[in-house]
Design a protein that fits this description.
Length: 471
């Protein structure tokens, strides 16, 4: 068992973030001023922060300290701890001591990718990825007026539950009767709040779950509600995460076209049908091809397709093959996710995080997918990380030309306000801070997660948002 004793500070969260990358899920023992990792090696470390801002980590008679310009204390303790754990475990991590969800925010502070290598020990390819993505994020962010609003509409239902998923979404095969009532509740919330919105709307994103899980009538009613209540101008970006090909029908595509939805997502996750079947998805790779071509024939020219690297039941080479197949279709956007262990997923943590040799192969396959995408004319435009992502990797969205999704950038940047409708949604307001170019102070307003509770309390949720945005 690994122990990290905190001395001169109480930054448990930051210490735990670094420990997690090396040793699995840690535990806080605050009455003893330490973090423990049951899966880690037998070692005791002391992570000390001095009044002058220096941090030193001690282990087995050695001292680990970054020699150079000091960062703020929260980052400094991570640097010295990273140096110690890298030595103790004989491992180096792709992102070094960068543990946050948005490495691009750190990249915005630097003048070059080399700064991320030198200051945070990020590997050169990851440093370059973060630096280039951060510049594209900022370019796209500038296209979203600061006084505007982005809208999210959440549909927490799916046709079936994938093995890797622990999202609040429900397997709708067990709850078919809820869909009509949930759609009606969404209409009620949107009707109540929309009349109070006095700001322009830059982007609308209908996500999930799987929004196209609705029957055609309810799906069309939802789009009618959005377009009749919200001031959606021709310049507004409207995205529908159509998602799983088995839920997309001719009628739903036609409804999206009639409402002038500007972009849709068709997400195979892998182009290997055997993997899809074993994961619990009710479609094949051939279904993905059929629906994609049908959408293109109907005039949808802004289509995103998602892949997940590190899925069980297939090896790293098969992920690369899936990337090659999507490149052949040439959708406007391709997003590469790395599998991560969600707390309530059926998939065990060992399938995601263990087996170091598999992690090396996964790392290489993700890098190879990126190279293939860049060679094919795609460029990274947004990126984020999740805590238990397999082997410390990331999720990256790639776009051709000027087709990056504005809502994704607004959501990940924490620099634009988002109003969220539906169960489990998180609305947020972002406030400028003096002296900060890229960071904002963020206030959040959560909607109750359980769909049944949301339906019962929808008026309360709507009023809460009206007050939150001071409408």
């Amino acid at each position: 068992m690994l122990e990290v004793i905190l001395k001169g500070h109480d930054k448990y969260y930051g210490v735990a973030d670094v420990v997690r990358l090396f040793c699995g899920v840690p535990e806080e023992v605050k009455d003893e001023h330490k973090i423990i990792a049951p899966e880690g090696p037998d070692a005791t470390l002391i992570n000390e922060l001095f009044e002058d801002g220096r941090s030193v980590t001690y282990c087995n008679g050695k001292e680990y300290e970054f020699k150079g310009e000091l960062l703020e204390p929260g980052r400094e303790i991570k640097r010295s701890l990273y140096l110690a754990l890298a030595d103790v475990t004989s491992k180096e991590l792709p992102w070094g001591c960068l543990t946050g969800i948005r490495p691009t925010l750190v990249a915005c502070e630097e003048e070059s990718a080399k700064d991320l290598e030198d200051k945070y020990f990020a590997r050169s390819d990851k440093a370059k990825l973060a630096f280039e993505t951060s510049r594209e994020e900022q370019r796209l962010l500038a296209l979203i007026p600061e006084d505007s609003l982005c809208i999210y509409v959440g549909i927490p239902f799916c046709p079936s539950r994938c093995e890797y998923c622990s999202f609040i979404s429900s397997d709708i095969s067990c709850h078919m009767d809820r869909l009509v009532h949930y759609e009606a509740a969404l209409e009620r919330e949107i009707n109540m709040v929309a009349s109070s919105i006095n700001r322009p709307i830059s982007a609308v994103y209908v996500g999930g779950g799987t929004p196209t899980v609705f029957e055609e009538r309810e799906f069309d009613r939802l789009l009618n509600c959005l377009y009749s209540n919200l001031k959606i101008t021709p310049e507004c970006e409207v995205t529908v995460e159509a998602g799983r090909p088995d839920s997309i029908t001719d009628g739903k595509l036609e409804s999206m076209r009639e409402h002038k939805v500007t972009r849709i997502c068709i997400n195979p996750q892998t182009m290997r049908s055997e993997t899809l079947l074993r994961l619990g998805r009710k479609h094949t790779a051939e279904d993905t091809v059929r629906i994609y071509r049908q959408a293109c024939d109907m005039g949808f020219d802004l289509i995103n397709m998602d892949l997940i690297a590190g899925l069980p039941y297939e090896d790293a080479e098969e992920h690369v093959n899936s990337t090659k197949k999507l490149i052949e279709f040439s959708p406007a956007n391709i997003t590469v996710h790395t599998l991560y262990k969600k707390r309530r997923a059926a998939m065990s943590r060992s399938k995601v995080m263990d087996q170091e040799d598999e992690g090396i192969r996964l790392d290489r396959s993700v890098a190879q997918s990126y190279e293939l995408l860049i060679e094919a004319g795609y460029h990274p435009y947004y990126m984020y990380r999740q805590k238990d992502t397999g082997h410390g990797l990331e999720n990256t969205g790639f776009a051709k030309g000027n087709t990056g999704n504005l809502y994704n950038v607004a959501m990940m940047s924490d620099c634009r306000d988002v109003l969220s409708f539906g169960a489990g949604g998180m609305s947020k307001r972002c406030f400028k801070q003096d002296g900060e170019l890229f960071k904002r102070r963020v206030e959040r307003c959560a909607t109750i997660k359980d769909a049944l509770s949301y339906m019962a309390r929808v008026e309360e949720m709507a009023q809460k948002k009206i007050e939150f945005f001071e409408m």
